[in-house]
Hints:
Largest sheet: 5 strands, parallel
Bound molecules: flavin-adenine dinucleotide, nicotinamide-adenine-dinucleotide
Structural class: alpha/beta
CATH architecture of the largest domain: 3-Layer(bba) Sandwich
Amino acid sequence: MSTAQAFDAIIIGAGQAGSALAEKLGAAGMKVAVIERKHFGGTCVNTGCMPTKALVASAYAAHLARRASDFGVSIGGEVGIDMPAVKARKDKVALTARGNVEKWLRGMKGCTVIQGHARFESPTELSVATASGELRLTAPKIFINAGGRALRPDMPGIAAVKTLDNVSVLELDRVPEHLVIVGGSYIGLEFAQIWRRFGARVTVVEKSPRLLGREDEEVSAAIQAILEAEGIAFRLSAECISFRPHGEQIGVGVNCENGAPEVIGSDVLLAVGRRPNTDDLRLEKAGITLDERGYIPVNDELATAVPGIWALGDCNGRGAFTHTSWNDFEIVAANLLGEAPRRVSDRIDCYALFIDPPLGRVGMTEAQARKAGHKVRVGSRPMSRVGRAVEKGETLGLMKVVIDADSDALLGAAILGVGGDEAVHSVLAAMAARQTATGLAHTVLIHPTVAELIPTVIGGAS
Ligand SMILES: Cc1cc2nc3c(=O)[nH]c(=O)nc-3n(C[C@H](O)[C@H](O)[C@H](O)COP(=O)(O)OP(=O)(O)OC[C@H]3O[C@@H](n4cnc5c(N)ncnc54)[C@H](O)[C@@H]3O)c2cc1C
Ligand SMILES: NC(=O)c1ccc[n+]([C@@H]2O[C@H](COP(=O)([O-])OP(=O)(O)OC[C@H]3O[C@@H](n4cnc5c(N)ncnc54)[C@H](O)[C@@H]3O)[C@@H](O)[C@H]2O)c1
């Protein structure tokens, strides 16, 4: 066995937080090693945000082309999907980004890139299984940015059938005849609309009585109605999901209160949540104990219980988005390099669901605000009464703002509608600046935009 190479810092995983942290620590004069076992850029770049949003764009183009006559545009024939071309475009987006991350890492000052699987040998030493044998590395500071992967729970019959996940579904260069998606949340719904727009029959099977259980009920209902109008079928309250081979197809037992007890699909996509990549890091050798869901417990500054080891991104259970992983890098770097201190608890929850129209969300839902004891004022407006949406011919959805009735503080917003993923940032920026609802309502916003209606929604809140 080789003697251990010594570094000032080692980063496990070249995902969203890891690569940026390497650059910052290297620029500060540290000798840094980054270990990546698979694709540079991690989930978002290779099998998450980027390829899925590239597919969302192709699906939108198909949808708009089918609606061309609504805008007085004639296509002069059927709208077709060239799935190999759709896939090639998606692959190009992801592969270009992956290559750019690799180039960025390999050009970084003070950074050594190692390709292989890292495991702990002690709190300060790692072994790395590479294509050319095992390496040993030591450092007083180790940062874990290991990300996560799709859950494949031990559901009845699952061993007897082939299922797709977020990685394998992206490899399809054919349109499934009937795609059954188990799980009606972010991943399930984005893929449901993508494949429906490409021409597949799609059924979403969800164990809860409604989609997106974290959202307010009217938002869940509006999303279901939008997707049903495109021909997506839903089987909700599917308590006892099971699988069985059915000739060349797959039978998915749903056992709902209403409807047929089984859905027969040509393909099944599992989208029932994610698990952190913490089971193969040999963390016990570092003295780190995982929580009951497999996440690495961290404090508000992302330090683990073991001095000199931090955990960033999806593997710490404090966020499940690219922007939260990126913010984890900012927090760790700022605190380590003596910049103004930053903490996880400073960030305001925000995310989007990239169906069309998208759902942009910040802060609390109305239900969460009431549960937290706030007396609330709520303003809302259907997108059919938003001028920009009418002009674009995209009037589905609603916007909603939640305000603390006593303090006038902005508590949260949901914008389900054309441009909702962008427009919601005006509420987010106001919340970050601790602007009151009245302060935002008195701000002049640009016409004609979706955001310009936010002051009107606040003005009508009761
Ligand atoms: C289908 C899908 C769509 C998504 N869409 C969005 C979206 O639109 N917006 C959004 O904000 N988020 C989205 N996400 C979530 C987002 O992709 C993740 O939150 C984000 O990528 C997490 O980044 P990370 O830095 O924590 O880890 P990752 O990006 O997962 O990186 C971890 C890296 O560590 C490596 N690694 C793991 N273990 C080891 C080891 N032992 N040794 C060496 N290397 C190791 C992995 O190979 C990987 O490259 C989506 C996720 C999925 C699955
Ligand atoms: N737009 C985005 O930012 C985006 C897009 C995709 C994914 N992501 C990230 O990926 C994460 C995982 O997404 P996800 O949709 O896989 O998981 P999730 O945890 O958000 O939702 C899982 C869904 O599956 C359902 N479910 C769980 N077990 C089930 C079962 N046995 N049968 C039927 N339904 C079941 C749950 O009720 C829930 O609705 C998200 O938390 C998110 O952070 C983000």
